[in-house]
UniProtKB/TrEMBL annotation:
Record carries keyword Metal-binding: yes
Protein name: Uncharacterized protein
Organism of provenance: Dicentrarchus labrax
Entry GO CC: cytoplasm
Coiled-coil parts of chain: none
Amino acid sequence: MRDFERLRKCYGNVYSLFIGPRAAVVINGAQAMKEAMITKAADFAGRPQDIFNFNCHLWLLLRMVLADYGASWKEHRRFALMTLRNFGLGKQSMEQRILGEMQYTMETLKRSIGKHSVVMFHNAASNIICQVLFGTRYDYDDNFIKVVVQNIRQCTCKKLATCLITEHKETRVPGQPRDFLDCYLDELDKVCDRLIMFVLDLHFPGTDTTSNTLLTGFLYLMTYPHIHGRCQQEINQVLEKKDHASYDDRRNMPYTQAVIHEVQRIANTVPLSVYHCTTKDTKLMGYFLPKGEFAKPDAFMPFSAGPRVGLAPMALFLIMVTLLRRFKFIWPEDAEQPD
């Protein structure tokens, strides 16, 4: 990342370089990012289909995150957003799922004071998504959730997704959806491979990036106790007469929101993100970019922008605020100063 910044200082906010045999354009700065990701969003919404070399290349072509911008991608995104909203995304029912999961997380924290609980956030994030996708919540000691989290952290989830889809096919009643999978099988019951990768696209990024961002955030709050304390003070003032936080409370917590955004910036859980690709000949900041040119956004976009925007801000806010309201996070007394 330092090299990208060094090149920006030398060549400006829009410059090109080679990644292997392919020329790439690196975009920096708010003005250039707004033009590419918002003003000309459709022009930059493609995905390069020949930059990755995997044995499972066909599988990658079927995925929503890596799929190129087109009719199939639009259909699947439309279906995903509509169905996720029906199951509570962005609504109070999703808040209740997140806050309900926090009760289990807080109990886990109480039992593990002074112990290493690195997968706790993975368990919480995975369970929140599992409730929407599969209609099931798993206890943190359940062997299934342990295997899920282990596989997500090791990027080997295909077999698990296949098993869950097979189970749903055998038990579902057409027209009576219990969860996201049933809705997909009702509406788009065509290609099993596509469904497997679709599920992974929703489950994997939502679990791994969210949990790693949370882990990084609390490590930094422990390292900078004055920021930790100021967040707690603001949270306590806003929630003084409330039983729990709501996503709407973020508007009254500017400092806590700023801390969360800074955590997202510095955590850098996906350093190079996923490349974009131009869908037609276009211009950016006066530079001509031919169709098929791929771009690496190098600006701070916590959940992306434009038609590829992500889905996780509610979970991050509610989890951090809920835990900061109930706990003080500190380094062990015998621990060395963190680097």
